[in-house]
Design a protein that fits this description.
Length: 223
């Protein structure tokens, strides 16, 4: 085994405590629909971390009965994820699903994504929004975003030795051991956090995969 390789994780019959984490900022308009689509019984807990939203995200989250953590000041997307993962690990998660609460990703896929991890097929699984060009554009993905996604994903695959279809997905699943091993607190507090995390996962020899997930696009809320 090489110096930086990580042992292949064994399959499990099922995860006992899968936790969904949602890094949130101004998600009031879409949060309820995102949560309502998640199949009952596919998670033990939902944790939402609010990064000083200017809308009713926190009030809506609390009305839905999920766990809510709030930042005292806006810290950035990467910092939000750090709080998400710290909380999930502290609350005993054996698998973690990171899902943006913007209703872009089809959250009905949560139990199927967890299944890939439980079977031992992957240690990290990403939702792929760009199964085909036609499907991505038809879902509402702006052309400029599609082009930049294709360029960056190709470059990142070459650099990390991976074969992923979408490096910038906001729907990601991790086995607990991945979060315990990766020093994600060293990463940026900004959006580059996601790419840094995947580079670390590749560096430590975790098996990274993706699966198609239907998406929808909406006008972004004003900051």
């Amino acid at each position: 085994m090489g110096e930086h390789e990580f042992p292949v994780l064994k399959p499990v019959a099922r995860f006992e405590r899968p936790i969904i984490v949602m890094p949130a900022y101004n998600a009031a308009k879409t949060l309820r629909r995102t949560i309502e689509d998640i199949p009952h019984g596919s998670f033990a807990e939902i944790i939402l971390v609010d990064d000083c939203s200017k809308d009713d995200t926190v009030d809506i989250a609390r009305s839905l009965g999920i766990t809510v953590i709030t930042h005292d000041k806006n810290q950035g997307y990467g910092a939000n994820q750090k709080t998400c993962y710290d909380a999930a690990l502290a609350r005993g998660a054996d698998a973690v699903v990171m899902l943006h609460p913007d209703y872009q990703y089809d959250s009905r896929a949560v139990p199927f994504f967890l299944g890939f991890l439980a079977l031992g097929i992957c240690d990290v699984l990403l939702g792929n929004r760009v199964r085909t060009r036609h499907e991505a554009i038809s879902s509402g993905m702006p052309v400029y975003k599609y082009i930049s996604n294709r360029f960056l994903t190709t470059f990142e695959n070459m650099g990390m030795g991976q074969n992923l279809g979408d490096f910038h997905s906001g729907f990601r699943c991790y086995r607990r051991e991945v979060l315990e091993r990766i020093p994600y607190h060293n990463n940026s507090n900004d959006f580059v956090f996601d790419t840094q995390f995947l580079a670390q996962a590749a560096y430590y020899g975790f098996r990274i995969g993706d699966a198609p997930v239907p998406c929808r696009y909406f006008e972004k809320p004003q900051a």
